Amino acid sequence: MTSDVLPGPVQETGEIFDVTRLGEYTQFTVVAPGVARGFKPGQFVAIAVGGRDTSMLLRRSFALYGVQPGAEFAGTIQFVVAAKGGGTEWLLRRQIGDTLDLVGPLGVPFPLPRASVPAVLVGGGYGTAPLLPLAQVLLAQGSDVEMIVGAATASRLFGEMQAKRIIGKVTVTTDDGTAGQRGWVTDPLPSAIERLGAEIVYACGPMGMLRAVGEVAGAHAIPAQVAVEESMACGIGVCMTCVLPVRDGDGVSRFVRSCVEGPVFDAGRIRWADVGTVPADLFGADGN
Amino acid sequence: MGTPTVDISTSLASFELPNPVLTASGCAAAGRELSPFFDVAELGGIVTKSIMMKPRSGRSTPRMAETPSGMLNSIGLQGPGVDSFIEHDLKWLHESGARTVVSIAGHNTDEFVALARRLYDQPMDLLEVNISCPNVENRGQVFACDAIAATRVISAVRRAANPNVPIFAKLTPDVTDIGYIARAVAEAGADGISLINTLLGLVIDLDTLRPALGGVTGGLSGPAIRPVALRCVWQVHQAVPHLPLLGMGGIKTGKDALQFILAGASAVSVGTAVFHDPTAPIRIIAELSDELAARGFSSLRDAIGFAHLSSEQQAAYFAAQTAVPVGR
Ligand SMILES: Cc1cc2nc3c(=O)[nH]c(=O)nc-3n(C[C@H](O)[C@H](O)[C@H](O)COP(=O)(O)O)c2cc1C
Ligand code: FES
């Protein structure tokens, strides 16, 4: 709908290089130099599932991390899969040496501050994945970074070891107290923001968590850039299934595609309370 | 032994196409998002998402549910309105050299007429009149369910639109007798027929115990509907044999496309398959050409409606083909 220049995703067949179980998740490392080449943190890959004559037509989307652009060796990408239904179960049966049909990198990456600024990164469940390469980029810029990773229970935490290796300062929360402190990621967030003098929060995880993180950031008068997970049919911007009500700079709210205009949004612009409805003041609501 | 080259050019009324594979309305936006994957000018054409006079937000989310070999969608014709469409999308398509089919949708006959007028001088090769979108509040808005309403829209659009641009009526399979509707729109002045639009469907979410889609019902598309689509093309070709048909519904491969051609389509649209494989339309051009060659057709035009011929008539065609040396 807008005339912004789209990044250049590619479609390529990637060979699975490694499959590793991590708690309730499975990490895939796939040789995909085309996808790796253009990657920026926050972007995702859309993967065809079920093989050639599959009855599952829609690609499954996964946030990318652990991307090695590859100079001498072919570039690789990593993503993490949680069993959710037929498509992800098919993926979980793939083995090293099998190939996958990939489209990526897709979506708008996390916007980076021009200079180094203190930042808090908040990941829920496997939502921590795209924050790992983001942390590396921010640290390389000289930014102070803290990370909070949370999940319902210990086995659903993802990436806390990698985060500790990259950042050092990581706070873990679980709803049931099976790891780290008991509670939600938003419990330690205010003190992390204050301790660091954070000027921005980045987050990825379930919608309810992103909304709550946005509210905490807002209360501290700092922006939160959040990567959403909407259900997507195409991932490339042609179907309009993945829309969210988002307010633009002029105060006009529209349904925007989370696959090409997201998945990263300024939390303050998403009309969280109106997700799943058509608010009366939405652009084009009177044309329905 | 190389495969003999098959002439795959075709026409939809006065619109001449170098190959018979187009995108489907609502499944390729206005082409630009597919350009990272292939040159959109190589397709038979881009069919744009149905556009209305005013900007339209469309329906609430969730707008999609995957179903066996298909999907249900309830987008509800989200779009920027015709002025923005002309200024941004149509301009881009024109500059990229793509053959363009513009799909229009209206709340009523007046809106269809206003759209045809607004688009009168715009660069396009064909106007597809979407009188069959299932994702509207009022089923009465599905003009293609009612021969009288369909006739009214099509004759009005034919009068208002640029006479040099063919107009195709897009039909729904959700009717008792699609041949009857086809004859009605043909008499009203349609230069051809696009078929089929999605079938009205429903999915229940077993977590919420409520319909899965925000719009409750949605349109079913993908390979699941292919036999229904083929049946419709077959029946409409019999009802109005003189009219060119743009066939669609679950086309994923060249073999699928060939079935539509044999049933009577002059060209095909590839919709939901694009979500699975963004390069599907381009791949299908090559596959269809190979499938035609493998069966001894020297041109795509010869294959249009070929399944309606008796086996004797078919044998006579192939006998004549082998009598003539291949290659020209
Ligand atoms: C997400 C989606 C949006 C669609 N939007 C439109 C539309 O705006 N106008 C229209 O005439 N058909 C629309 N259709 C219907 C398709 O153009 C096509 O008729 C139908 O999906 C059957 O073809 P397929 O099985 O290849 O997708 C839409 C289909 C889908 C899946
Ligand atoms: S998933 Fe198709 S437009 Fe976003």
Describe the structure.
The complex is a heterodimer of chains A (288) and B (328). Chain A is an alpha/beta fold. Chain A has helices spanning 33-38, 86-92, 131-140, 160-167, 189-196, 207-219, and strands spanning 10-22, 25-31, 44-47, 60-63, 65-68, 76-82, 99-106, 119-124, 145-151, 170-174, 181-182, 200-204, 224-227, 243-247, 253-257, 264-266. A seven-stranded antiparallel sheet of chain A has the order 4-3-7-1-2-6-5. In chain A, helix 4 (160-167) links the parallel strand 9 and strand 10. In chain A, helix 3 packs parallel to helix 4. With 328 residues, chain B is an alpha/beta fold. Chain B is built from ten helices and 16 strands. Chain B is globular and about 60 Å long. The model of chain B has no long low-confidence stretch (mean pLDDT 94). In chain B, the strands form four sheets. An eight-stranded parallel sheet of chain B has the order 3-16-15-10-9-8-7-4. Chain B has a four-stranded antiparallel sheet with strand order 5-6-14-11, with no helix packed on it. In chain B, strands 1-2 form a two-stranded antiparallel sheet. Chain B has a single domain (10-320), classed as TIM Barrel (Alpha-Beta Barrel), CATH 3.20.20.70. Chain B has helices spanning 82-95, 109-118, 147-160, 178-187, 226-239, 254-263, 273-276, 280-294, 300-303, 311-323; strands at 10-12, 15-17, 21-23, 46-47, 64-67, 70-73, 100-104, 126-130, 167-171, 192-195, 199-201, 204-205, 210-211, 218-221, 245-247, 267-270. In chain B, strand 9 (167-171), helix 4 and strand 10 form a beta-alpha-beta unit. At the A-B interface, loops of A face strand 6 and helix 7 of B. The complex binds flavin mononucleotide and FE2/S2 (inorganic) cluster. Residues 232-235, 237-242, 257, 259 of chain A line the site of FE2/S2 (inorganic) cluster (FES). The site of FE2/S2 (inorganic) cluster (FES) has 12 residues of chain A, from loops.
